Amino acid sequence: MESLSKSLLRKMILQYRRLIKGSDFACRNELLIDRVKLFLSRKNIKKLHTFLAMERNCEPDISPLFPWLAETGVKVIVSKTNFEMYEMRHFSLTESTALVKNKFGIPEPTNSEEASIENLDLIFVPLLLCDKEGFRIGYGGGYYDRLLSETKALKVGLSLSPPADIILQREEWDIPLDYLITPFKTYNYG
Q1: Is 5:169 a contact under the CB 8 Å cutoff?
Q2: Is the pLDDT reported for residue 47 higher than 70?
Q3: Cα separation of 144 and 127, whole Å?
């Protein structure tokens, strides 16, 4: 792993993820949702930011939790990305929010109210790979690195696979996660 570039690691991880299909994906995702729900029930979360799963990349999908979050009074924020300007805008997610997939297959809100990221309690962070120290490899755009640097919210990664031993390709701006939740275990890096 030491000599592999981040771009090659990303390709390898995406190929591996796409092998987790059908009932295996569904089982892992359901176990992850149960673990996320348990995690959230032990925290005092009022406002959280989450990514919306890219189906083609076999990302964890916590959307089945959205009704439960609404019932418990948690405000959910999602983003819409402007790839030309390298920025994300943030929007409230409600039961009436319409989602449309962008050119990369990322669901984005189309009819939602813009929301502030001030006072976020938690951010669910997308990742391709995380290590046992909480460092992650994302998709390479730096969007979440910038978001994480703007807030004091808990940084929680979601993964259908356990963490790697160590990611050697770290950058000076990388911000480690506080937690990683997998179907098998929740890792506390704090």
Answers
A1: yes
A2: yes
A3: 10
d(CA 3, CA 121): 37
Please check the confidence at residue 126 and state whether its pLDDT lies above 90: yes
What is the distance between the alpha carbons of residues 11 and 114, in angstroms, rounded to a whole number?
33
Is the pLDDT at 3 greater than 60? The verdict is no
Residue 11 has pLDDT above 80, yes or no: yes
Which element (helix H / strand E) includes 88? strand 87-93
What span, in angstroms and rounded, lies between the C-alpha atoms of 56 and 104? 9
Alpha helices in the chain (DSSP H): 6-17, 22-41, 66-71, 143-149
Q: For strand 154-158 and strand 136-137, is the pairing parallel, antiparallel, or unpaired?
A: unpaired
Closest-CA residue to 77 (of 42, 107, 44, 114): 114
Nearest to 151 by CA among 119, 181, 176: 119
Distance CA 148, CA 117 (A): 11
Q: How confident is the model at residue 183 (pLDDT cuts 50, 70, 90)?
A: very high
Please, are residues 187 and 180 in contact by the beta-carbon 8 Å criterion? yes
Quote the pLDDT of residue 4: 65
What is the rounded average pLDDT for all residues in the chain?
A: 90
Q: Give the pairing type, strands 99-101 and 154-158.
A: unpaired
